[in-house]
Amino acid sequence: MIDKRVQGPSEAVADIHDGATVMIGGFGEAGSPIELIHALIDRGSKGLTVISNNTGSGQVGLAALLKAERVAKVICSFPRTANSTVFPDLYRRGKVELELVPQGTLAERIRAGGAGIPAFYTPAAVGTPLAEGKESRTFDGKEYLLERWLRADFALIKGRSADTHGNVVYHKTARNFGPIMAMAARVAIVQVRSVVQPGAIDPEVVVTPGIFVDRVVEVREPRHESELVAAGATYP
Question: 131 in the Ramachandran plot: left (φ > 0), alpha (ψ -120 to 50) or beta?
Answer without folding.
Answer: alpha
